[in-house]
């Protein structure tokens, strides 16, 4: 129900009590020869669209301090990283949709890098936007969490992956040319836990390397590397038994960072199996500005029109995200289009409009935002046209990279339109303030003029009476 709550302060306090105060959580390595240019470069939105029909984002925030508006404003300022997390199921697996969302936003608002990549995963070969080579790691997925060793099962992050190394285990990430802005980046954040003392070796561009002596602690650590990074390697020299690997985030500041956190067969429930303190600690290292929730596709069934229970789960998911990532706006994506086989051929699933209504209602009840993916797809012909164009699989359920590109473009249009409206509203408010100030200034000048003007009554004393 909507009263779902996790006391993050209590969880964080329990972990903090076990962390030596002198144990650092961040290790910096700056190889850049020149200082980064941090001068703000405003990037104003424009009216150019990538898709013929605009499907706007609906913002249900009623507090008067919309996190979505704050996200739009930060996009335009251009003076800091703007972080987006895409949490979903197999619909966005392998960086489908999020790769094109990332590319278009980075081209428009700045930034580079592929975002989050795990230490190891059976799916790394499927992802095109970053190349990952891992040796000596055991990787565990949250959907099979019962197979995860008990000693580390409480450390899951919203990525859905835990990686346990042996001594000498290594991973090498390399940029990609699959999309623009991916061949290099300016910063990489390596995320891990080292519960006992360990030694870590990091190598940049297969050339520069440095060894880090990590003091044991249950806290999430990050090694932050600054350089023109084309490849990055991470090797556990010792202390592997108490080390847990998450992955690395590849980014450039200022600019947009988009992290793909897809978990196959997850309807969103797996979110509650993650450790809220781990989520909050990683958010403290690199706070999110927008969290996108893409779930519900596999929940729908033909002939089923009541999704009350699932709507309650969505509300819980939004509240959970708001607690773990308090800096972020939450955007619920309505289900995508889907067709089912009938005697007359493939037809749109009858459950879709009902699921969309329940998802929209859940977003409204929690003050989140909502975007109907199905409407965007149907503006381009719907699932049958996607299949005919080669943009979706023959299961009439899952889009491929080509289909993800079209959906992402529609979402980019919606984000750009929202940013444009926020910019227009801010400009109108600025002009109104200037006008109000001008009126106040004129009133002040009139008052001063009256106070300094000679009193006319004095002159009247010398006027002879009639």
Flag low-confidence runs: 12-21, 457-461
Q: Helicity range of the residues?
A: 25-40%
DSSP strand count: 18
Gyration radius (Cα, Å) is: 27 Å
**Could you say which overall geometry the principal axes of the C-alpha atoms support?**
globular
Structural class: alpha/beta
Mean pLDDT: 90
Strand order of the largest sheet: 2-18-15-14-3-13
> What is the N-to-C succession of helices and strands?
HEEHEHEEEEEEEEEEHEHEEEHEHHHH
Measured distance between first and last alpha carbons? 89 Å
Largest pleated sheet: 6 strands, mixed
Count the DSSP helices.
10
Strand content: 25-35%
Describe, in short, the structure shown:
By secondary structure, the protein is of the alpha/beta class.
What does this structure look like?
It is a single chain. The protein is an alpha/beta fold. The protein has ten helices and 18 strands. The chain has helices at residues 8-16, 67-77, 98-109, 276-285, 308-324, 352-366, 373-378, 382-388, 401-452, 456-461, and strands at residues 26-30, 58-59, 81-88, 115-118, 131-141, 161-174, 185-194, 198-204, 208-214, 217-229, 231-238, 243-251, 255-262, 290-294, 329-334, 339-342, 345-348, 369-372. The strands form four sheets. Strands 2-18-15-14-3-13 form a six-stranded mixed sheet, with helices on both faces. Strands 1-10-7-12-4 form a five-stranded mixed sheet, with helices on one face. Strands 5-6-11-8-9 form a five-stranded antiparallel sheet, with no helix packed on it. The longest helix is centred in the C-terminal third of the chain and has 52 residues, at 401-452. It is globular and about 90 Å long. The N and C termini lie far apart (89 Å). 45% of the residues are buried. The model is unreliable at 12-21 and 457-461 (pLDDT under 50).
